Amino acid sequence: MTTVNDKELEDLLARCFAWLPKATEQVGCTEAVNVTSANCKQAMKPTLVALFTEAFHLVRFQADKMKQMKAELSSTKSQLIENQKWVISLQEQIIDSKDSQLEAVKTVVETSVESNLKEQFKSYSAAAAENVMVCQASTDGLSNPATLRKVVKSVVQEEDRSKNVIIFGLQERKGENIEERVEEIFQDIGLKPKLQAVRVGKVSKEATIVKRPVKVSLASSSLVYEALRQARKLRHSEKFSKVFVRPDRSDEERARDKVLVQELLKKRETEPNKLHFIRSGTVHSRDKINNE
User: Fold this and answer.
1) Which long-range contacts (CB under 8 A, 24 or more apart) does 39-44 make?
2) 75, 3 contact by CB (below 8 A)
3) Are 216 and 202 in contact (CB under 8 A)?
4) DSSP H helical segments within 251-290, as ranges?
5) Which of 84, 97, 108, 189 has a CB 3.0–4.6 Å from the CB of 230, allowing a cystine?
6) What string of pLDDT tens digits covers the 292 residues of the chain?
7) Of 147, 158, 149, 148, nearest to 124 (Cα)?
8) Cα dist from 105 to 83, 108, 114, 131, whole Å
9) Are 230 and 185 in contact (CB under 8 A)?
10) Do residues 251 and 157 touch, judged by C-beta distance below 8 A?
11) Which contiguous run of DSSP H or E holds residue 85?
12) How far apart are CA 277 and CA 158, in angstroms?
């Protein structure tokens, strides 16, 4: 199929615009709007014949080009329809691919969840068995409802503690909003989790400065892990350098932690030129490096 290019259209337009003023002048008119049948009667026959011949061929040439343009337009429309069908086909393939990927992810997640549940159940069973061994007074201790309740309570408490952290060293203020103060600590280490916070323990009558620990509950154990990982930044904080974030422990573990924190604070006061930290249940010290 012969196509119409831009140069051909430009040539056609140029011929038309050149012919119009020429024809207007030859029939004795000054403007194209004045070319009427009455004015054309004044022109000589040879002039009109020549103008007619030129006009005929211009119209013929225009008709050919318009026919070509119509064919090209039809072809373009057909191609556009094919392209749209191709796009729709691609979209359907993408949707099918996403469905397959989602199904694969669903399978992986279901398998992972099932595996984790089995592992957690084993862990809970092991914990329950351990607690039963400690709590049993005799070989038939499991038949005692009180013993069973104690075992279940111990397992549940262990799970709850995995979503908590304990903050030490935060001085109490009269009428304080403890959750806002804890949020400020977390913001200082680059975290903004949703949380619940409450002071724990009793206030000693002899104490002049009260710094009861703060129990902070987060949405998941992964947030607890991240909070504990980022807590080391507090030692560089202007406001919270004497604040410590520790995991939530049992009463026995908490008592050991309290002793460790007190030992750590004492070392920081007596040996300020060294870096002191708690690791594996022991207070460690080393020389500071650069701006530590």
Assistant:
1) none
2) no
3) no
4) 251-270
5) 189
6) 556 677 777 777 787 778 778 777 777 777 877 777 776 666 667 776 677 677 766 776 776 777 777 777 778 888 888 888 888 888 888 887 877 777 777 777 677 666 666 665 565 555 445 554 544 444 455 456 665 565 555 555 565 788 999 999 898 988 899 999 999 999 999 999 999 999 988 877 766 677 889 999 999 989 999 999 999 899 888 899 889 898 888 778 778 878 888 888 888 889 888 888 888 788 888 887 776 6
7) 158
8) 32, 5, 14, 38
9) no
10) no
11) helix 45-135
12) 25
Residue 239, CA atoms < 13 Å, CB-side half-sphere: 10
Any idea of the CA torsion for 248, 179, 275, 162, to the nearest 10 degrees? 20
Phi, psi at residue 165, to the nearest 5°? -130, 155
β-pair partners for 276: 285
Residue 178 identity? I
